[in-house]
Amino acid sequence: MFSIRSLTRSVPRTLSRSIATSAARPLQRSAFFQPTWKLMSRPSYAAFSTSRPRFEAAGQVDVELAAKFQEELSLETESGETEELPESVKYFLDNGPFEIIDKAGEEEVVLTRKFGDENIRVSFTIADLQNINPEEDFADSALQDELEMDQSRSNKDVSPEENLDEQPLEPGYLARVDVTIEKPGKGAMHVDAVARDGLIQIENVSYFSKAELATAETPDKEWERQSLYAGPPFGNLDEELQTLIERYLDERGIDTALASFVPDYIDFKEQREYVRWLGNLKGFVGNN
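The line above is the sequence of Mitochondrial glycoprotein; the predicted structure tokens follow.
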């Protein structure tokens, strides 16, 4: 009943609306009476604009990230440790025979000196500090703790003053040191060593008839160098021969002073490069 009533009420309104719409709409010509030029399709053209493209606005994280970089930068620079050389480093450079080559932004540090007619080059890198293996450090510290416990058991009857004198030093990290000694017309001697706990530990001694192979600064030289005999491990040599080689290097400044300097300078340079890295990224991310 409701549907029939709805239908009868809607039909007159629909009919009257259609009639009114037809009456109000102007009479259109059929396509037969349209001019020929209107029947032709209009060509379409690609939109073209001479205005500059609009770039994306800065990301939502940019400001926050730049502020975090600034926060870290302030924390690292407030102590002023990156500005002045440590006393131990300054003393070595002022009183030692080496000239230092340290380029900002590079990992490698080079020391050079003359010894008679020899040109001596010592290089090391801050990458050794960044590549420290936490697992090895943990193992070293665990072994150190065990040794200290054994020592404390054996020293129960020793006076506190004597215990202070016999406390073992904390082991330092290994810093690789490459030494090249070049003589005019005689090639070069290359030494692979590590500096740790104030000592230079030699691992290998090599000879190159072509001095440029000792440093191998190009891929071609490195490839040529790899095919040459590098000599036996240093520890396999006769003990007297080992001692004489160590004395030979010691006379040229490859000694305990250098072994103490290298880790100290690595710490200083790594901190300075980290501060530079923070500043560069802050400037890149920020809008200023």
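Note on the example: Strands lie at 99-102, 108-115, 118-125, 175-183, 187-196, 199-208. Residues 256-285 form the longest helix (30 residues).
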